[in-house]
Amino acid sequence: MSRRSLLRLGALAGAGAALGPLAACAGPTGVPGPGTLTLALNRSLVSLDNKLNQFDAAVTVQRAVRQALTRVGTDLSVEPVLAETFEATTPTTWTVRLREGACYSDGSPVTPEDVGTALEMYQQVNGSFVASFFPEFPTVVPVDERTFTLETERPVPALDFLMANILVTPAAGNRPEELQDGIGSGPYVVTAANRGTGEYTLSRNDAYWGTAPRARTVRVRFMPEESSRVVSIRSGEVDVIDSITPDSADQLLGLPGVRMERAQSTRINQLFYNFRKPADHPLSDARVREALTYAIDGRALAEDVLVGSVTPAEGVVPTGLRGAVPTGGYVYDPAQARQRLDALGVDDLAVTVIWESGEFAGDAFVMEAVHGMLTDIGVRVTLRQFEPGGDILSWRQGRAGDWDILGNGFSSPTGLAESMLQGMFAGTAAKEETRDTYHGYVFPHVTDLIERASAEPDADRRAELMTEAQQAVWDTWPCLWAFVPNVVLAHQSRVRDIALGPTNCYDLAAVRVEG
Predict the structure, then answer these.
(1) Over the stretch 402-444, which tens digit does the pLDDT of each residue have?
(2) Residue 23 has pLDDT above 50, yes or no
(3) Cα–Cα distance, 408 to 21 (Å, whole number)
(4) Which of 207, 243, 397, 400 has its CA 20 to 30 A from that of 499?
(5) Residue 54: what pLDDT?
């Protein structure tokens, strides 16, 4: 039996062992009280700010405390939040008017100055996740106490989508780092926080300018082990869990008191190459990167390891994004992989594969399977798994140890292909100096196409340029393999009105808790 088959059986057995004993439980223990909603996240919520780390599920909590001018809805359209109106008045100018009465939890009003300072702080923080989506940051020009313009040198047609990711806080308390304290304008305020354990308590914001949230209290817990999350929701200890493997989803499906929510994802998960290798390294050659892809049995990974919960990528971004086009597919042919490597003179290749636990559901099983596949073609593989909250960020930025392939996920919080292309593939030499590229990916011809597309006001011409850019990226073979996961969430039946969106988040204030 192959290592992959053993791995698959082990995954099934482990899930069954974790869930089996609960079948005889008489009733839930540690059930949250009336009006209290408890969320269990698979990754630690290190901050209620999103300048550096914005994994999908965290957005739900972050935006309950701090808000943006707009948000991207479940249908991937722009919806106003702090902005009453947000209109393009010239190709390089957007006019924004803040909602009357929009204020922070201390009663102070949200001002144009706060928006301007927020934009400055996102630009200044080193390694900002959000900053990577902006082809150009706008300048805030106040008009009156509620009105201002956002002005750019070149057109940024998607600026109303992009500003959904800039969380606003009072200018005096904002800094170029993830904020660990301070106030927001959202429906909840933080009443207890432990960054070390990833546990937070949110309470209703009595000064909230909008409709009052339906749950009185929200508790956020960090549970890295999937079996613990599944046990906790079955016992009633927690109300909502996400990022669960297909095996666990199957175990929960149909259980009394537990409901499942699913949505098409705007996220792509990848085995991404390290583009900071010296020029004479084999992985600096696109032909070597392509040759290695033939070693990966994507069908087996998608169907046997991930049990049909994902779709192998057909391009460099998820095809469900606006503006996405298919550019190619990954072909499994290990003999072809070895022949190509031999022809290129690569006969003793060793690679180190790194990832952080919880990066995607079933990550460890996928990595073990990939280990076996690469070993089958004579590649020596070292796996290195990082625990959440560790120093993988320094490794990814090339500031710590060396690596060759990274298991990683990347989402488009705007729902636009151009945002994902901008964030991952529009690297420049200047960005690389501050380690603000996506793992050293710098190809000037690709960046030029993306930047031209991002600044093109004509929709048809922009689509043409985006198509060219996606094909140009594919031709550089940035990934060993990639897939698009389904968004899956489980919750207690007493929890109602979770409108799960493709971005794997929902409006926390709209969630209702019965009993």
Answers:
(1) 999 999 999 888 999 999 999 999 999 999 998 889 999 999 9
(2) no
(3) 33
(4) 207
(5) 63
> Whole-prediction pTM value?
0.82
Sign of CA dihedral 359, 362, 368, 369: negative
Taking CA atoms, 455 is separated from 159, 174, 380, in Å, by: 10, 29, 44
Give the largest Cα separation in the chain, rounded: 71
Using CA atoms, how far apart are residues 193 and 458, in angstroms rounded to an integer?
Answer: 47
The length of the chain, given as a count of residues: 515
- pLDDT interval class at 15 (50, 70, 90): very low
Q: How far is residue 363's CA from residue 352's CA, in Å, rounded to a whole number? A: 16
Q: H or E segment at 289?
A: helix 286-293
CB 213 within 8 A of CB 508: yes
pLDDT digits (tens, 9 = 90+) for 62-81: 999 999 999 999 899 999 99
CA angle 493-267-512, nearest 5°?
25
CA distance 370 to 251: 26
Q: Which two tokens stand for residue 444?
A: 């000037």
Distance CA 440, CA 431 (A): 9
What's the pLDDT tens digit per position in 161-185? 999 999 999 999 999 988 888 899 9
d(CA 220, CA 198): 8
Token code pair at residue 201: 């308590």
Residue 5 contacts by C-beta under 8 Å, 6 or more apart in sequence? none
Cβ contacts of 181 within 8 Å, gap of 6 or more: none
The three-state secondary structure class of 424 is helix
Distance from the Cα of residue 278 to its chain's centroid = 29
Check: CB of residue 412 under 8 Å from CB of residue 266: yes
Q: What is the DSSP letter of 104?
A: -
- Which tokens sit at 377? 């073609």
Tokens matching residue 131:
């900053």
Q: Do 50 and 129 meet the contact criterion of CB atoms below 8 Å apart?
A: yes
* Cβ count near 512 (within 10 Å): 14
Which amino acid, one-letter code, is at 390? Answer: G
In this structure, the number of other CB atoms found within 10 A of the CB of residue 89 comes to 10
User: What tens digit of pLDDT does each residue of 348-401 get?
Assistant: 999 999 999 888 888 999 999 999 999 999 999 999 999 876 788 889 888 889
49 vs 176: CA distance, rounded Å = 11
Q: Which of 343, 337, 344, 407 is nearest to 378 (CA)?
A: 337
Say what angle helices 226-235 and 3-19 make with each other, to 10 degrees.
30
3-state secondary structure of 286: helix
Taking the CA atoms of residue 13, residue 15, residue 21 and residue 24 in that order, the dihedral angle to the nearest 10 degrees is -120
